[in-house]
């Protein structure tokens, strides 16, 4: 289903030019309001359970917002689809909006899955709201392929860049094709799919809620880039804002690749094996092989090299380098994926064919998932990320230093997003608005109306702790809280300290002291969940990050 674009009544106009009078598509500051008036109010009603189905009561609504905030003369609009979890305590103190990452992940379904955990963490005093961002779901979907045949072609073209000596060249050429396809099919609407417009959508929701005109927000992963952007565009309208699992927005907007995000990936990979030994054979089967953590890691690397030329046939499946490497890269997100990985490695190391076939079967997409469905997240990621990025490379030779740098930063993750970065380097759809986010952490600081709470895990293989500190340098009086554990963002690490800190922040605006480190109760290969921390049954996905922060997609 395509998003419906409509026009506004003639008497309404959009006010989206920068407050300093510069053109909106080259703005360095944003007007304090997204519009002179609300284009539609929010009327909450029943949710479509096929799209939004959680364990807590929820209601849904649509909100009409400008298609193009950069053109005051435009009357075209789109509908944002919102979901709300009402506060446990009435009357509500207001609303908190969420973005769960990607970019390209839908918001409503994830809120439904994580609602019970999030309501407890935030103190139960606020309504929780999420919408499907531009480019996702039915909200101006960014989809460059038109049917399953085209989607299958794209999926079959995805490959690892370091399987053969020709891999990098093949991926660069694939990026050329993908970029041309998107330019042909999405040029008209793709320019309205970008993070600055996403930030303005957040503020349109704030205005339509008719509360206090201030933003309360919790962003995870890419949601931290969206959060940093809205804080930079509307610094005087920030009430409480959490950036959790922090992406480096300076690189996101201005570099040829997200180099910093892989800083700690190799440490996390090593941690899979060292914590396995600590957990013991009852919880981690690899520990029964009587090898050290480094020996298990070395054996895994040896197996990967073998699979490049000697893939293993298991029944009707093939265990090859891309399959195992991709499985490992997904596991880098956090301990929720480690038991499955170490079980597979244990079967491979001990030649347990039956067990391998069962795992291989589980990795095959569900038969009800069409190729078009399978590619939607990666297509949305292209539209949002590539449109936001300013850096370009004309040739593979120009791009090769970027590839080399990625390989040098991380052996396990260096090749993970080269396909995405290759397409972005050749991107030709220009966004309707380019907000000039600071190019580095050494740029002048931005003063927000209230302090921002920034959360980073000690061992995060996707958004390292250093990125949290880099973003903190961008915003005056922001505070970094470190969560001492493995995983991507704090939702995957049940911790009473995190609960207390987040709850106090939202209830009273209290930021922790500088240097706050929260220990976690959840150990890798253990079974501690948020329900254990809260002391009550929370329902839904009570302990995992799997539904809270979307997995990386390979392009």
TrEMBL record:
It comes from the Eukaryota. Pfam families: Abhydrolase_1, Abhydrolase_4. The keyword Signal applies. InterPro entries: AB_hydrolase_1, AB_hydrolase_fold, Pept_S33_TAP-like_C, Serine_prot/Carboxylest_S33. Gene3D superfamilies: alpha/beta hydrolase. One of its GO terms (molecular function) is aminopeptidase activity. Residues 414-518 form the Peptidase S33 tripeptidyl aminopeptidase-like C-terminal domain. Residues 110-265 form the AB hydrolase-1 domain. Keywords: Aminopeptidase, Hydrolase, Protease, Signal. Residues 1-24 form the signal peptide. Belongs to the peptidase S33 family. This is Tripeptidyl aminopeptidase.
């Amino acid at each position: 289903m395509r998003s419906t674009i409509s026009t506004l009544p003639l008497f309404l106009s959009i006010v989206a030019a920068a407050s300093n009078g510069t053109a909106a598509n080259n703005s360095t500051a944003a007007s304090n309001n997204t519009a002179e008036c609300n284009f539609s109010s929010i009327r909450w009603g029943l949710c479509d359970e096929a799209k939004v189905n959680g364990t807590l009561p929820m209601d849904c609504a649509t909100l009409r917002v400008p298609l193009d905030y950069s053109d005051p003369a435009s009357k075209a609009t789109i509908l944002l689809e919102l979901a709300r979890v009402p506060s446990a305590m009435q009357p509500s103190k207001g609303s908190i909006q969420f973005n769960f990452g990607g970019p390209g992940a839908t918001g409503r379904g994830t809120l439904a899955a994580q609602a019970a955990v999030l309501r407890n963490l935030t103190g139960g005093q606020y309504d929780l709201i999420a919408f499907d961002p531009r480019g996702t779901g039915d909200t101006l979907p960014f989809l460059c392929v038109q049917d399953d045949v085209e989607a299958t072609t794209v999926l079959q073209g995805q490959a690892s860049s370091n399987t053969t000596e020709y891999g990098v060249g093949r991926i660069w050429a694939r990026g050329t094709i993908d970029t041309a396809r998107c330019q042909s099919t999405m040029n008209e609407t793709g320019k309205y799919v970008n993070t600055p417009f996403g930030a303005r959508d957040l503020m349109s929701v704030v205005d339509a809620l008719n509360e206090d005109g201030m933003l309360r927000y919790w962003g995870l992963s890419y949601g931290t880039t969206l959060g940093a952007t809205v804080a930079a565009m509307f610094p005087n309208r920030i009430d409480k804002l959490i950036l959790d699992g922090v992406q480096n927005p300076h690189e996101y907007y201005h570099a040829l690749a997200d180099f910093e995000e892989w800083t700690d990936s190799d440490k996390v990979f090593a941690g899979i094996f060292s914590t396995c030994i600590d957990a013991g054979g009852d919880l981690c089967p690899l520990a029964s092989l009587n090898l050290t953590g480094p020996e298990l890691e070395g054996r895994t690397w040896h197996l990967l090299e073998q699979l490049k030329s000697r893939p293993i046939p298991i029944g009707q499946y093939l265990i090859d380098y891309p399959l195992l490497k991709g499985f490992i890269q997904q596991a880098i997100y956090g301990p929720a994926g480690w038991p499955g990985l170490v079980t597979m490695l244990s079967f491979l190391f001990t030649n347990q064919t039956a067990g391998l076939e069962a795992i291989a079967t589980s990795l095959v997409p569900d038969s009800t998932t069409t190729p078009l469905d399978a590619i939607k997240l990666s297509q949305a990621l292209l539209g949002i990320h590539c449109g936001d990025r300013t850096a370009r490379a004309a040739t593979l030779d120009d791009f090769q230093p970027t590839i080399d740098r990625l390989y040098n930063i991380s052996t396990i993750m260096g090749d993970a997003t080269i396909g995405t970065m290759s397409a972005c380097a050749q991107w030709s759809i220009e966004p309707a608005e380019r907000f000039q986010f600071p190019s580095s952490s050494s740029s002048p600081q931005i003063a927000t109306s209230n302090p921002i709470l920034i959360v980073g895990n000690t061992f995060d293989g996707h958004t390292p702790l250093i990125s949290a500190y880099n973003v903190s340098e961008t915003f005056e009086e922001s505070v970094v809280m470190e969560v001492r554990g493995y995983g991507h963002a704090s939702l995957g690490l049940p911790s009473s300290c995190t609960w207390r800190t987040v709850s106090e922040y939202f209830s009273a605006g209290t930021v922790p002291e500088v240097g706050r480190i929260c220990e976690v109760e959840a150990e890798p290969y253990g079974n501690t969940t948020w329900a254990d921390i809260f002391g009550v049954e929370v329902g839904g996905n009570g302990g995992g990050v799997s539904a809270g922060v979307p997995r990386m997609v390979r392009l």
